[in-house]
């Protein structure tokens, strides 16, 4: 059979595409036969053909990588080695590029360094810390920071230090490896950084958590292309400053800068973080109007955004419409159903994922276990946890252990939770003790709560939420001495309770309310609506649940304190600002208290409104006086 030209690795030998299905012995025979044919015909005598063959083998990765790594040595050409580096940098385990760089038999050129940079950037952009850890196992063996430093030194020695791609690449490489100081030092050596290099430094500063410094550099850039704008938006998202990200995106559009896929992916993440559904819908509409392809990246970002805004039905519509899905797409769908309390549906999608041949990862199992916990599916969660290692080869993380304690604890199986903790093969961390403390609150078990808090504070002495949870347990029992003790403990340690806030989106603008806040321009109307809400609820027999109020004060004062909780202010504003029949969507930074939960259930019935609230733990879908959590949160 005549063999095609090797200039494009994607066209290399149809037989290679089927090779993964061959037995290892037969595969090796095939590769040797192909190699021999190319040698006999003289097609590997020239560096371009050898490089193309190496790249094609390395790109297929799982079955041909080891063979590909042997080829550049026979004969040794930098072009072939660079082809190998490029293929590894683009592959699913980019960390191997560091080991290959270490093995270079020839001095590296600017392309070698550029491909190493790509590998570092790929490692840093892994979707989660767990995925990044999996991707970097090979890098750990190759000691990435020393390798990166040697690449920098090689660039200087070989005269490539002034190459603009290498310069910006060095900044990106150090940033991707988490060495912000080295990135700053590399940037400082550049006399006149171009837009590529300055953009890399913006990304480095943002990744290091210094979004303000990144913005200062961004504002000072004489030229800013769409890459620079996108880097700054992504930096804000990385720092959790989603509102700043959305404001900058508006500036980008007004400036007439082209909006690309990476920009929209970051904007969708910002919408997900703030619960800005209208803005997220605008992005989705923009994609349609511009005829943008529903890529895996954008589709996954849309599923995540809609799920985190409580529009789980729309999230699943997007998911089902996607022609291509990867493990992150499936995991986003599973996680979205879980956080919205749809445990059975979460399990069903997980089963579909496995049936489709997609290997679940650790993040997937966190989502499934949370879904089981939210829905009280103890047996199903236990079965899922048991299958992780035995069936899927996924070693449990601390998050998985925490999910199991939460699963048992929420269901009232406190003895099972304690036995599970005692049987853990690793030292329990804050997630485990936090889950047990929350279970103690749900079931009002003071002694168990004290034990969990003691363990938790030994790890995180400044955990404000843990102090408040135990204080609420004491308050439920009318143990005001216990409440006072917790308050004194917090004061002595300098621990301050994180202020509660709630946000609601109206006409594309996010309005934020704090507890007792009166600064909103429409506060007078909000105050009048609060009075009307309370009047109508009392006609339905509502009485404020003041048990979680932390002060031993008169009952009337307690009712006044909880009547101004931030979610009630946001709810009142939603009733006056949104048309009838429109869902009211609220995002809260803390767990919703019992009184506000009961209050919102009644509001949904009395005012005939569907209300969707996202608190720190989960979604609550209120309708006709009921909540999707079934009072199980």
UniProtKB/TrEMBL annotation:
Where the PPR repeats fall, as residue ranges, is 225-259, 326-360
Residue ranges annotated for the DYW domain, each copy included = 541-633
Record has Membrane as a keyword: no
Family annotation (Pfam families) = DYW_deaminase, E_motif, PPR, PPR_2
The record's listing under InterPro entries reads:
DYW_dom (IPR032867), E_motif (IPR046848), PPR_At4g14850-like_plant (IPR046960), PPR_rpt (IPR002885), TPR-like_helical_dom_sf (IPR011990)
Q: Which domain of life is it from?
A: Eukaryota
Which UniProt keyword terms apply here? Repeat, Transit peptide
Which N-terminal stretch is annotated as signal sequence?
none
- What NCBIfam families does this protein's entry cite? PPR
- PANTHER family (alphabetical): PENTATRICOPEPTIDE REPEAT-CONTAINING PROTEIN, TETRATRICOPEPTIDE-LIKE HELICAL DOMAIN SUPERFAMILY
> In its UniProt entry, what is this protein called?
DYW domain-containing protein
User: What is the organism of origin for this protein?
Assistant: Urochloa decumbens
């Amino acid at each position: 059979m005549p063999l095609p030209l090797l200039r494009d690795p994607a066209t290399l030998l149809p037989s290679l595409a089927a090779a993964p299905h061959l037995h290892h012995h037969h595969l090796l025979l095939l590769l040797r036969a192909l190699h021999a044919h190319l040698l006999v015909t003289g097609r590997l005598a020239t560096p371009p053909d050898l490089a193309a063959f190496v790249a094609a083998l390395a790109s297929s990765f799982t079955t041909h990588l080891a063979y590909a790594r042997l080829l550049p040595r026979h004969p040794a050409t930098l072009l072939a080695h660079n082809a190998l580096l490029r293929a590894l940098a683009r592959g699913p385990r980019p960390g191997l590029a560091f080991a290959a760089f270490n093995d270079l038999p020839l001095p590296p050129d600017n392309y070698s360094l550029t491909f190493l940079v790509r590998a570092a950037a790929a490692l840093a952009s892994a979707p989660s810390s767990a995925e990044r850890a999996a991707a970097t196992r090979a890098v750990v063996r190759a000691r990435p920071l020393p390798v990166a430093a040697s690449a920098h030194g090689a660039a200087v020695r070989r005269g490539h230090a002034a190459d603009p791609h290498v310069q910006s690449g060095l900044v990106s490489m150090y940033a991707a490896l988490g060495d912000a100081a080295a990135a700053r030092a590399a940037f400082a050596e550049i006399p006149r950084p171009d837009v590529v290099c300055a953009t890399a430094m913006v990304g480095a500063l943002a990744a290091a958590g210094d979004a303000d410094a990144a913005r200062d550099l961004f504002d000072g850039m004489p030229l800013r292309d769409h890459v620079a704008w996108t880097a700054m938006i992504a930096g804000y998202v990385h720092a959790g400053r989603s509102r700043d990200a959305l404001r900058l995106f508006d500036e980008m559009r007004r400036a007439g800068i082209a909006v690309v896929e990476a920009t929209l992916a970051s904007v969708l993440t910002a919408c997900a973080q703030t619960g800005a559904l209208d803005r997220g819908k605008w992005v989705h509409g923009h994609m349609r109007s511009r005829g943008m392809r529903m890529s895996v990246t954008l589709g996954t970002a849309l599923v995540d955004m809609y799920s985190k805004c409580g529009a789980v039905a729309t999230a699943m519509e997007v998911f089902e419409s996607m022609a291509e899905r990867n493990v992150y797409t499936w995991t986003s769908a599973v996680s979205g159903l879980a956080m919205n309390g749809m445990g059975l549906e979460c399990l069903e999608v997980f089963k579909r994922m496995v049936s489709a041949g997609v290997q679940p990862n650790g993040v997937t199992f966190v989502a499934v276990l949370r879904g089981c916990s939210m829905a009280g599916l103890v047996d199903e969660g236990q079965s899922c946890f048991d299958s992780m290692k035995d069936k899927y080869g996924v070693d449990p993380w601390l998050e998985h252990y925490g999910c199991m304690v939460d699963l048992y604890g929420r269901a009232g199986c406190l003895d099972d939770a304690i036995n599970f903790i005692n049987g853990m093969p690793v030292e329990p961390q804050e997630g485990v003790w936090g889950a047990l403390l929350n279970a103690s609150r749900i079931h009002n078990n003071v002694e168990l709560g004290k034990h969990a808090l003691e363990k938790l504070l030994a790890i995180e002495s400044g955990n404000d939420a843990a102090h408040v949870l135990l204080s609420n347990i004491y308050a439920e029992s009318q143990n005001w001495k216990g409440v006072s003790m917790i308050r004194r403990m917090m004061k002595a340690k300098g621990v301050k309770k994180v202020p509660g806030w709630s946000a609601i989106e109206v006409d594309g603008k996010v309005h934020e309310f704090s507890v007792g806040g009166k600064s909103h321009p429409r506060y007078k109307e909000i105050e009048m609506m609060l009075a009307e809400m309370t009047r109508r609820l009392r006609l339905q027999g509502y009485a404020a649940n003041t048990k979680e109020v932390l002060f031993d004060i008169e009952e009337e004062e307690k009712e006044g304190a909880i009547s101004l909780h931030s979610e009630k202010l946001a709810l009142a504003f939603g009733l006056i600002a949104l048309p009838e029949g429109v869902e009211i969507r609220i995002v809260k930074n803390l767990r919703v208290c019992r009184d506000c939960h009961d209050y919102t259930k009644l509001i949904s019935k009395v005012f005939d409104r569907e209300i969707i609230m996202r608190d720190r733990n989960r979604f609550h879908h209120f309708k006709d006086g009921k909540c999707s959590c079934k009072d199980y949160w």
